[in-house]
Write a structure and sequence with these properties.
Helix content: 55-70%
Strand content: under 5%
Number of helices: 6
Order of helices and strands: HHHHHH
Number of strands: 0
Mean pLDDT: 85
Distance between the termini: 50 Å
Length: 100
């Protein structure tokens, strides 16, 4: 089976998921959380670092349960768009147009 490449949005969502799980884990060891969730420490490490941007739902459900996170809260956190960069001032030149 050929797997399609991830979209930039999926990659960003995976990074937000990893950051959320790291924050929720706090001072708990990765090993303790992984074992309690019945996943390998390597799987948890890959999710937390964003290397697995689209982990299986049961995996996330198990980790979220161990960390005391509701799946609604997880989804709300990872699906919110990142703040957009401020638009350029009207009349400002784009950086590539400055060099002439």
């Amino acid at each position: 089976m050929v797997r399609l490449p991830l979209t930039p949005e999926e990659v960003e969502r995976g990074q937000r998921l990893g950051a959320l799980l790291r924050r929720a884990r706090g001072e708990r060891s990765m090993l303790d959380v992984a074992l309690a969730a019945c996943v390998s420490p390597e799987t948890l490490r890959k999710i937390e670092t964003g290397r697995v941007a689209t982990p299986a739902f049961p995996t996330i459900a198990a980790i979220a349960d161990v960390l005391g996170l509701s799946l609604d809260a997880v989804w709300a956190e990872i699906s919110r768009p990142e703040p957009a960069t401020a638009p350029a001032r009207p009349g400002a030149l784009a950086p590539e147009r400055l060099a002439s």
